[in-house]
Write a structure and sequence with these properties.
mainly alpha, two-stranded antiparallel sheet, 2% strand
Length: 488
């Protein structure tokens, strides 16, 4: 391997490192916008006189659209490339962000918050971009930096937006703060488009052989994929049920949404069949095979890791505010401890995965995550605040290291399907968030943290059956030429 491929100098701004820096910052800004409401919920609640049920609904609805969005974005990025898709996503999301900033009723807030869930799908785009630019021995670390430094956007929002709201002042201070985040991604959508390329010069951008559903390799994997698609619509059904129970949705509207979700699942199943109908008549050539169980296990791992992070980041500012009776600014700063660890923990998870193996890294990080959430379940007003922050940081380290380990594996399953696989795995993170936030809306934070710890135990069992990647994967160029890609 050349010296260029064996070293990763983060202090340069050329070649693949330039792409890494520009892409993680795009993800960073998308996370700032996706979670710009969380540290400002107290101000929004007071400004629009929201009830506790309405606040819970906004927190849950924020991650709802990201489930289908990550699937759709995964397909788009595999076909059109990350440069165009990321720039377009940031541009469109900026307009929705402006609408959220000027919303003057709960109905408008929840509609625009629902639509802003689409910006959370940006993560999938960068996964494909980074995998195109970095060799296999670096891809885990590079994906970890991309995900970790980008994920820090939620912490940056928690740290800066309450202060920015105070600087603007008045009842509408929160509106100006949120509008500023929209302006940032609007400008950056143009910067990103004119400064990146989809692949290094001379490299081929592999596209799926079929459009629509995810390609699988056997009849068994087809039915397995069908089953794994159920939670993607099931999570939205849970969200609909919770909104109905909170009195925020009529029974007739709920049934209409349930029917729509059934139709979506039917269409998704038909698309999957259309993409894979040949497997019912003939075997897939060895050169195109992969094991779908790898994707399924990564789905569960990301449900537990990123799903819990999304849920905790959404509720932690109000949790600290209510538990310790501190100011909203201080609550935002305390809550940022959870996301702050992203700067080092997610790259660390990718690094140890590159160096010591994908499966073992996931087992270790999930074990630490379980211990961390059990400890967080014990936090109450009698605790010293520094101790609560220390426990929160310990837990978040393993949560985000686990995320890094998951996406160190995703690009090594099947190169041409990386966007779709990343989309499905990423969507499962949102499935976890909705499920965990639904638990929170029904129970105490203590039970909420305990349920996540139990989910980690179940995921540990599943990860035990994860296989290490093969030494290489094979892809076929458009002209029929076979190319061997080293992955270990």
């Amino acid at each position: 391997m050349s010296s260029e491929n064996s070293k990763l100098n983060l202090l340069t701004f050329h070649g693949k490192t330039k792409i890494l820096h520009l892409t993680w910052f795009a993800f960073f800004l998308s996370f700032v916008v996706w979670f710009n409401h969380a540290p400002l919920m107290a101000a929004i609640r007071e400004s629009l006189q929201l009830t506790d049920a309405q606040v819970s609904a906004i927190l849950m609805i924020n991650v709802a659209l990201t489930i289908p969005a990550r699937i759709i974005i995964g397909m788009l990025v595999d076909h059109f490339g990350p440069r165009l898709v990321y720039s377009s996503l940031l541009f469109i999301s900026s307009l929705i962000c402006f609408l959220f900033a000027i919303a003057d009723s709960f109905q408008q807030l929840i509609i625009y918050r629902f639509l802003l869930g689409f910006v959370g799908a940006g993560f999938v785009i960068g996964i494909r971009m980074i995998s195109e630019w970095f060799p296999a021995r670096q891809v885990g670390f590079a994906e970890g930096i991309y995900g970790g430094w980008g994920n820090f956007g939620s912490a940056a929002a928690a740290i800066t937006l309450p202060t920015l709201t105070l600087i603007f002042g008045g009842e509408d201070g929160w509106r100006y703060a949120i509008a500023c985040t929209g302006a940032m991604i609007l400008v950056y959508s143009v910067i990103y488009f004119f400064n990146v390329q989809d692949t290094p010069a001379g490299s081929t951008y592999f596209k799926p052989n079929k459009s629509g559903g995810l390609e699988v390799s056997s009849k068994r994997d087809f039915w397995f994929c069908m089953a794994m698609n159920i939670p993607l619509v099931g999570a939205l059904a849970i969200l609909t049920w919770r909104l109905g129970k909170l009195g925020l949705m009529t029974t007739s509207l709920s049934f209409l949404i349930y029917l729509l979700l059934l139709l979506i699942y039917a269409y998704q199943s038909w698309s999957l069949y259309q993409a894979n109908k040949e497997i019912f008549h003939q075997e897939v050539p060895e050169i195109h095979r992969y094991q779908f169980k790898q994707v399924a296990i990564l789905n569960l791992a990301y449900l537990t890791t990123f799903g819990s992070e999304l849920a905790v980041v959404s509720m932690l500012p109000l949790f600290f505010l209510d538990t310790f009776e501190v100011s909203p600014v201080m609550a935002g700063l305390l809550a940022s401890a959870f996301a702050f660890m992203n700067l080092v923990s997610r790259p660390f998870g990718g690094w140890i995965s590159d160096k010591y193996g994908r499966r073992n890294s996931l087992l270790i990080t999930l074990g630490g995550l379980c211990i961390g959430y059990i400890a967080m379940s014990q936090i109450n007003s009698a605790w010293a605040i520094p101790l609560a922050v220390l426990v929160t940081s310990f837990c978040s380290f393993f949560v985000q290291a686990g995320e890094g380990a998951v996406f160190a594996m995703v690009p090594l399953v099947r190169r041409r399907l990386t966007g779709q696989i990343a989309g499905m795995v990423g969507a499962y993170g949102n499935v976890g968030a909705i499920a965990f936030l639904a638990v929170l809306s029904l129970a105490t934070p203590k039970i909420f943290f305990t349920v996540i710890a139990c989910a980690a135990v179940l995921t540990l069992v599943a990860v035990y059956f994860l296989d290490e990647p093969e030494e290489s994967m094979v892809e076929v160029l458009p002209d029929g030429t076979v190319q061997l890609i080293e992955v270990s």
